[in-house]
Amino acid sequence: MRRKPRIPPAPLPQRHGVDPVRIRLPREGSWATARAYLVERLAAGDGVIDTMIGEGLIVLEDGRPLTAEEAYAPGLFLWFHRELPHEERVPFPLDVVYRDEHIVVADKPHFLATTPRGSHVAETALARLRRELELPELGAAHRLDRLTAGLVLFTVRPGERGAYQSLFRDRLIAKEYEAVAPYDSGLGLPRTVSSRILKERGVMAAREVAGEPNAVSVVDLVEHRDGLGRYRLTPRTGQTHQLRVHMSALDVPILGDPLYPVVTGPVPAGDFRRPLQLLARTLEFTDPVTGRAHRFVSGRTLEAWTAYDTWSGRGTGDQ
């Protein structure tokens, strides 16, 4: 069995709480220079790569700037900072509900991505916390969808991250979500919903398909009024968009969902008017490092429940 290569520490510091990009040259290739590989790999054009090399923005393991003449060496690591995209700031606070020397538990607002991905890089929960708490090695133990609010667990020490990630992988962590959706008196709750969910790369919405179930959710009704229900959702598995898919399958799609049951497109940057009414309410687990029993509760509320008139279209004042 081939061993995984040792990944050396990054020779560049973080920028705005974001790690530099790391590229490893393939073991097999016919490129004469590292520059030639980068031109092909990044599809950025000769001029872009030459400018980055000329300005010393691409560096080797020891921190030396890459030169245009550097010979291609299989397995060579290179680092650089990508140009950060323009990002609309999410104008809601990211609250820390717990912090010790091992973990940070944050209460994420709607519309804030958990970790850098795609067009959301510096304006993410991880990057914000690294900057605000001055914890450059902070890592995420799991992710919440950008549109979902609530509790997220982060790890302080890189060497302990795997232990906390295993809580989610091995289902050793109890999670409860809260959602606001239409009320249906005929649903017969609580009930367990199980199905096979498929999420394809490049496709915005997941879908249920035939086959062995890989997603299990317990759906219960907490209370209802005026045609809306406040639901307690307990996922037994962790498939992408699982709770959103299962609520839609029950014909009670979560309010504010742009994907289920009908894809209406991504929420435009800067549009914070109708957040998805889904909240990661509680996290409960035994700390795998310290042995402490933890139970955390989000302090956030779902505005469709607290401000029903606005969401129902009745209006609460001047229009």
How would you describe this protein?
- Strands 3, 4, 5, 6, 7, 8, 9, 10, 11, 12 and 13 form an eleven-stranded mixed sheet that branches. This protein has a two-stranded antiparallel ribbon with strand order 1-2.
- By secondary structure, the chain is α+β, with helices and mostly antiparallel strands.
- The chain folds into two domains: 21-80, no CATH class; 95-312, Pseudouridine synthase.
- A hairpin with an 8-residue loop joins strand 5 and strand 6 (149-155).
- It has seven helices and 13 strands.
- The model is unreliable at 315-319 (pLDDT under 50).
Overall pLDDT confidence: 91
Query: pLDDT under 50 segments (min length 5)?
Result: 315-319
Helix content: 10-25%
> Count of helical segments?
7
CATH class of the largest domain: Alpha Beta
- Spell the H/E element sequence: EHHEEEHEEHEEEEEHEEHH
Q: Distance between the terminal alpha carbons, to the nearest Å? A: 67 Å
Helix/strand structural class: alpha+beta
Number of domains: 2
**What is the CATH architecture descriptor of the largest domain?**
2-Layer Sandwich
Portion in strands: 25-35%
The name CATH uses for the topology of the largest domain is Pseudouridine synthase
The quaternary structure here is single chain
Q: CATH H-level name of the largest domain... which superfamily?
A: Pseudouridine synthase
Could you describe the largest sheet, including whether it forms a barrel?
A: 11 strands, mixed
How many β-strands, per DSSP?
A: 13
Q: Which word captures the global form?
A: elongated
Radius of gyration: 23 Å
